[in-house]
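thought: user wants a sequence for this fold. calling inverse folding tool.
action: design(structure=
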């Protein structure tokens, strides 16, 4: 394989490469096997048709394209390693020459870690942690949750009995129809000994939810302050990667709701370009946040636990057997590293408080 790299604007690298025809051809059988899993051929189960039958059915252009993706996916990590490139985001790949018995030629534009200058991020994190307030749950919140459970039980009974009741609006249920709160009723709901036990577990659930929301809000506040105090340029490719990821997640959410993105756009009288344009500011902020997280992880030598990384990778591959392990590994390492960085930042305020308590105890001991 031959390749050359060139620095271009906005902290980006352009890679121009060529893979010899013999090396390119080695991917033909693997490409055909992958295509065979997706293509329908009469008389054969998916993946069981002879490879040349698959090639004839799919067409040479489709086979060559799949071969190209496989060849480049294999070559790209080697180029990064050889050039010691600190890559961020997803690359833009352009195939410039694709033909039988010819070298595969391509260009890749990818973003590299730009210069990121941070302020005193530990101090910023400490200040936010110090401002955090303990989570509390009022009795009225437990009462409200119990009321909702009682309404839901009545609603479920009406549904089971096929009773029409204001389009199943459980907010319209009459007070007299609600079940009485007794130990027997509490035990029928699930693993609850009595009403007191039910209330305690409801309290724990509310507390857990409020703690989660407070934690998320605190992390956003910490990141916003660190970003505002930082100096950095965001490569456009990284913003585009975030936009692509946001669009993909949005599309998945729509599909789970039984709607295609094309139908959504038509109903909203909007194009995909306009939709993504409206998300660009958020995508840029997310890109900045990732750059900051990467910088802190590097500065503090923060790495995810290797056993946990392996466990998460295996879990994903178990449910998505066709996923590329390299991509899955990169995703898991990124997510767990980000988590570790946030935990490091959150520990700053706690750490200082513990030190203060320890110093006070030592001072008292010295006086004695």
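)
observation: tool returned 368 residues.
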């Amino acid at each position: 394989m031959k390749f050359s790299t060139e620095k271009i604007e906005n902290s980006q690298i352009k890679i121009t490469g060529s893979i010899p025809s013999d090396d390119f051809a080695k991917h033909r059988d693997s490409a055909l096997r992958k295509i065979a899993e997706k293509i329908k051929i009469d008389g054969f189960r998916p993946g069981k048709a002879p490879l040349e039958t698959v090639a004839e059915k799919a067409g040479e252009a489709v086979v060559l394209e799949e071969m190209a993706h496989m060849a480049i996916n294999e070559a790209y990590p080697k180029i990064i390693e050889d050039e010691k490139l600190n890559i961020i985001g997803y690359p833009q790949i352009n195939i410039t020459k694709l033909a039988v018995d010819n070298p595969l030629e391509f260009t890749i534009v990818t973003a590299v870690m730009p210069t990121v200058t941070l302020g005193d991020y530990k101090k910023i994190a400490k200040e936010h942690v110090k401002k955090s307030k303990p989570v509390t749950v009022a009795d009225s919140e437990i009462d409200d949750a119990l009321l909702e459970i009682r309404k839901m039980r009545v609603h479920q009974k009406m549904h089971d009995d096929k009773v029409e009741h204001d389009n199943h609006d459980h907010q319209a249920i009459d007070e007299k129809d609600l079940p009485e709160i007794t130990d027997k009723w509490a035990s029928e709901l699930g693993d609850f000994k009595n009403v007191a036990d039910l209330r305690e577990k409801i309290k724990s659930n509310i507390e857990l939810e409020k703690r989660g929301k407070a934690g998320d809000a605190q992390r956003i506040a910490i990141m916003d302050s660190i970003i505002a105090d930082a100096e950095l340029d965001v490569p456009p490719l990284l913003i585009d990667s975030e936009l692509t990821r946001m669009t993909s997640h949005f599309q998945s959410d729509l599909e789970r709701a039984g709607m295609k993105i094309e139908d959504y756009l038509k109903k909203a009288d909007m194009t995909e370009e306009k939709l993504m344009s409206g998300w660009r500011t958020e995508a840029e902020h997310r890109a900045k946040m990732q750059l900051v997280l990467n910088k802190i992880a590097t500065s503090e030598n923060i790495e995810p636990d290797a056993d946990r990384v392996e466990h998460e990778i295996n879990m994903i591959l178990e449910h998505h057997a066709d996923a590329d392990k390299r991509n899955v590994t990169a995703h898991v390492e990124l997510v767990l590293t980000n988590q570790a960085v946030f935990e490091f930042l959150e520990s700053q305020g706690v750490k200082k408080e513990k030190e203060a308590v320890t110093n006070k105890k030592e001072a008292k001991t010295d006086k004695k």
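thought: summarizing for user.
answer: Here is the designed sequence. The longest helix spans residues 325-367.
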